[in-house]
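Each field is set out underneath.
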Amino acid sequence: MTTPAKPASGTPAPASGFPAVPRPIIVLFLLFVFLVGVKGLGDGFKDLGRDFLQSFFGATANPFIGLIVGLLATTLVQSSSVTTAMIVGLVAAPTDPLPLANAIPMIMGANIGTTVTNTLVSMAHMGRRDEFRRAFAAATCHDFFNFVTVAILLPFELLTGYLRKTATFVATHVGHIGGTEYESPLKHALSAAFAPIKATADALFTGWGHAVFLIVVSGVLIYVALILVVRVMRATMEQRVESFLIRALDKSVLLSLLIGAVATVMVQSSSITTSLLVPLAGAGLMTLRQIFPITVGANIGTTVTALLASLAVSGPNATAGLTIALVHLLFNVTGSALILPVPFMRNIPLSAARGLANVATRSRRWAVIYVIVLFYLIPAALVVISRALS
């Protein structure tokens, strides 16, 4: 009697959850579905918030108010690229431009606000204790990195004008070279995939109902894709398929930094790059130490969109638009140089992320409380402080 041949190692058997389809193809498809959800979520929040952004960018002479405006605007539209591009446009406006000194804290606030996306994404892992601890730590290390950077550089900027002066010096020498706006091929694919959902929303809803529909559908796509990605990648980890990638990232922090920056340039969203790390951490494929420099690189990569947009503007305030874009780049590069190479500084966001993840794992409500406190109560407290000081 002939014994049936066993499936080749790494190929799922027909009775498995994903018959006859190679796991890398499944992962790529699920990640694409996840990105469609992220794109749709951004569209939904833009529908809710785009009309309010101009009013947010009005009276921002107080640096704390400017910080809050940048934070809340980015939280609303789920994209620091959108916020910073709008800030560039306001600073470079031919009439009544936003003052540069007012815009700098807004740029810093945008860096904090962009971290809420991957923090919310990590909550999809709440059903599994160990996965949630790893995923939540991977998400919140981005939060704490940006929070520490702002805590250092905002007071320093107010005292010295370091970012404004340095960026102004560079902008005056390159402000007339012109530029072009980059269009990500992935963005076109995501738009095409999300078009049927958007068409359904257009046909059924208007106003807030339209935005809520997009947000709910996108949230379902994100949640389902994450659950399935973690399931497939856990099986992949058991067969050590990803071990070469993990060892490669171990060899060089600079390589990880470059990976984060390039990936973010490709998709024009640090939220997408960092959110993709969450299921990798949840599945145990990457450690917090490996993920952290990629996250830092994503912060640098997200500045490219605003830089290219600023190089394309023209008019009497074009140099000012380039200056604020350079402030964004300089802010992220300086923060990376201060924190990543220094063990003591690097351990601050890492230790805070691990500690918070342990607390949130013991009681899931602390994860929700953290988001509310960091992204809403602290901004409200800054408003109270600024009013008291004025």
About this structure: The chain is about 80% helix and 0% strand. The chain has one domain: 23-389. Confidence is low (pLDDT under 50) at residues 1-19, 178-182, 237-248. Residues 87 and 103 are 7 Å apart (CA to CA).
